[in-house]
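[INFO] parsing input record for Putative E3 ubiquitin-protein ligase HERC2-like
[DEBUG] input buffer:
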Amino acid sequence: VSFGWGHALALTVDGKLFGWGYYADGRIGNMGNDRLESSPLDSAATVFSNNKQLTSSDLEVAEKKVLRGMEEESNMPIIWEPRLVEELRNVKVVDIACGLDHSLVLCRDGVLLSCGSNVYGQLGRTREDLGFFPVDINYTPVSVAAGVGHSLAICELDESDDSDTVGATNIASWGWNQSSQLGRSGPANLPALIDTLDGENPVSVSAGRAHSIALTSKGEMWVWGSGKNGRLGLSSSVDEVEPFYLDSLEGFQILQAVSGFDHNL
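[DEBUG] output buffer:
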């Protein structure tokens, strides 16, 4: 199960995808929509995308905006119970990730789909139609993660990628990059590999609001993006523009690492 801001996706053991929650902007595909609509929840996105230290009062303001919007919109487009995503009924899904107002769905055949808001380029595709459509990615994704406005995918590399190791992996990133949470420079609206992680073979990746973390096959942690509140674990609040090895965990064989909004575990 993956949760976004107002929507959720659930993946069953047999590869079926269910969605529920707020759907007007297409964040759970084409459910009940025939055109792309703007979201009254976008006011909350403005609060979250502002890379300042959020206080409890900031969060209360965002929550009040959402509640007020729900009260004012008696016909607000909400799916109240999990519902099968019909457009993917005949597709086997293997991984899912929900961002603030976008979603990523990885299919068994290696096709990566995206839907929802594309204001930061987080859908990773030039096609703007409502619903699930393929990300413009030139690599083979094996798992995905989504932050507030950025997307990450662990990708298998082949011989054409100049990899020295069979089964080597790297991370492709795209979307919002205000705090360097993509871990690379260059165009942000389409997927591109993070050069710093070449040869590190990441096996899992997780995205926070404005930072990212990755775990490698050697059990090592790499962090990048916003350093506010010490979320990168580097004893500072400095942003890291590229992945940085978290040497404070050296000697530990890390099994799992996940990001929260502004923290990690």
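[INFO] The chain has two helices and 16 strands.
[INFO] shutting down worker
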